[in-house]
Amino acid sequence: MAMTRQFISEQRLLAKINAKLASDSVCGDCTVSSLMRVESDQTGCNWSVAAISGPFNCGAAGSSRADKVIETFKALYNFAD
To answer: Which of 52, 41, 65, 61 is nearest to 14 (CA)?
Structure first.
């Protein structure tokens, strides 16, 4: 059974993602600067990261860590229609 996502504004979601990234020792210098609405994917998520920045694009280890953080939020939140 799929979990129901909470609806959230882009600004609020950006703040939550960046706070989580900032608290991580590996990808703490990564920052998501924008999100975009997309057609719902196979999991039902209707947004995607449009831009992420950081040292060396958050480095290989940090990037996969940042991806995991982002995937967690993708499972929890959707933009309101």
So the answer is: 52
Tokens of 8: 């959230």
Place of tokens 């993708």: 74
- For the chain, the C-alpha Rg in angstroms (whole number) is 12
Tell me if the pTM is above 0.70.
yes
Q: Which amino acid is at 71?
A: E
Query: Which pLDDT tens digits describe the chain residue by residue (81 residues)?
Result: 456 899 999 999 999 999 999 999 888 888 999 999 999 999 999 999 999 888 765 655 556 888 899 999 999 999 987
Element (H, E) at 38: none
Q: Which of 59, 37, 57 is nearest to 48 (CA)?
A: 37
Q: How far apart are CA 67 and CA 3, in angstroms?
A: 20
